[in-house]
Write a structure and sequence with these properties.
Structural class: alpha+beta
Shape: flat
Radius of gyration: 23 Å
Largest sheet: 8 strands, mixed
Helix content: 25-40%
Number of strands: 24
Length: 407
């Protein structure tokens, strides 16, 4: 067997392994470890640890080696936090951007309130869980140290829902959200909703005390699955994007509020259901822009139902294809922008042409974040404060907020 030394972790969490002039990627390893294994197409599929790192610990979960939901459960919390922080700083440094020492928030285990699970019907019932690592096989979960206990407790019910409504050939997607009203489940890829299936699903929703069960756009709503966003209560569209943990959302919001302290006219770009817009409206007038109509409708309804908030206007607009122009941006004294993983190059270029006093840039991808920040830096903006938020425990994902001001 070939021996390899792990030089470092790549930004997706795999180890970069070296053996002489050879280089390969290996999962579930840590920097400095010596491993054995054979590389195939640049990957060591099943490395054997010869010399473990002092940062290595025993994983908590029995599914860990098979399940693709986690990839860093074998590392100490201190290592993971330091590594994720360095990933952000390295991405910024690669763009020539200096950053202050960040504040760091880490969400606790068993705190994920939103999960995208997969389900498949079997001869004996159904499997529900995450895909295996680099595999189409679904790992049927019996435990999970990431999800809220209420979601884990609902797995038997979710299997019965999949068994009732999946064809043998289909794989279902289940977006499961736990909130104050209970579980909100959105299923996609199931059989057509016929009367018999509706009756079965309605009975299962009643038995499981689900707040809402949405089946490919047809909802069985027993009570509104409202979620708090500041003082407002939002009923998101079925399967809507939300921050993964309540603690992570609070940390991101605290950072955005700190960045925009004093701003009275704020634009919230890629606003979603109002994670930032609704709390910011407690202090400022907000214009919320989002490419999808449904989240903005939920945001608007929540604003109208919440007394005491400043005005929120909404605009359905694809900011990748039709970004706000400099003359539109000039009306605001603060911008919060939370784009998808690919970043917001087009919008950033127009933002760079303004002198908006402060930009709170939120991101879930360090590389695209750094590229967007470079556009603003070229226009004279600098990062005054930086926050790192880890709400995806045991994974390589990391989020960040930067407060940028013009020099």
């Amino acid at each position: 067997m070939t021996q390899w030394t792990i030089e470092r972790l790549g930004r997706k969490g795999d180890g970069v392994a070296l053996s002489g002039d050879a280089r390969a990627l290996a999962p579930l390893v840590l920097p400095g470890e010596v491993i054995e294994g054979e590389a195939e197409t640049g990957r060591i599929i099943a490395p054997r640890i010869v010399t473990p790192s002092p940062d290595r610990i025993r994983p908590l979960c029995a599914h860990y080696r098979a399940c693709g939901g986690c990839s860093l459960m074998h590392a100490t919390d201190a290592f993971t936090t330091a590594w994720k922080t360095q990933v952000v700083l390295t991405a910024l440094a690669a763009q020539g951007i200096a950053a202050p020492v960040p504040q760091v928030h880490v969400s606790p285990p068993c705190s994920r309130r939103r999960a995208v699970l997969s389900g498949r019907r079997t001869k004996k019932g159904a499997t529900v869980g995450f895909h295996g690592r680099a595999s189409e096989v679904i790992v049927d979960l019996a435990e999970c140290h990431v999800l809220r206990p209420q979601i884990v407790a609902a797995l038997p019910l979710l299997r019965r829902i999949v068994a009732a409504g999946a064809s043998r050939a289909a794989e279902l997607s289940l977006v499961v959200i736990h909130g104050p009203a209970g579980l909100d489940v959105a299923v996609r890829g199931g059989k057509p909703m016929e009367p018999a299936l509706f009756a079965t699903l309605a009975a299962l929703a009643e038995e499981g005390d689900l707040a809402r069960l949405d089946w490919d756009g047809q909802a069985i709503t027993r009570r509104a699955p409202a979620l708090p966003m500041g003082r407002a209560q939002v009923v998101p569209p079925p399967g809507a994007f939300l921050q993964a943990t309540e603690q992570g959302q609070a940390a991101l919001l605290a950072a955005v509020r700190a960045a925009l302290a004093g701003a009275t006219r704020v634009a919230d770009l890629f606003a979603g259901c109002g994670t930032f817009a609704l709390p910011l409206a407690e202090r400022a007038a907000v214009h919320a822009v989002e490419g999808l109509a449904e989240p903005l409708a939920a945001l608007d309804s929540a604003w109208r139902a919440t007394p005491g908030l400043n005005r929120i206007t909404t605009e359905v607009r694809d900011l990748a294809r039709r970004p706000l122009m400099p003359d539109e941006l000039a009306h605001f004294d603060g911008i919060v922008i939370d784009p998808p993983r690919a970043g917001a190059e087009a919008q950033m270029r127009h933002l760079a042409a303004t002198r908006v006093p402060v930009v709170a840039a939120v991101s879930c991808d360090p590389v695209s974040f750094a590229k967007d920040a470079r556009i603003l830096a070229d226009a004279g903006y600098r990062i005054d404060r930086l926050w790192v938020v880890d709400q995806f425990r045991f994974s390589p994902h990391v989020e960040m907020v930067a407060a940028l001001t013009p020099g």
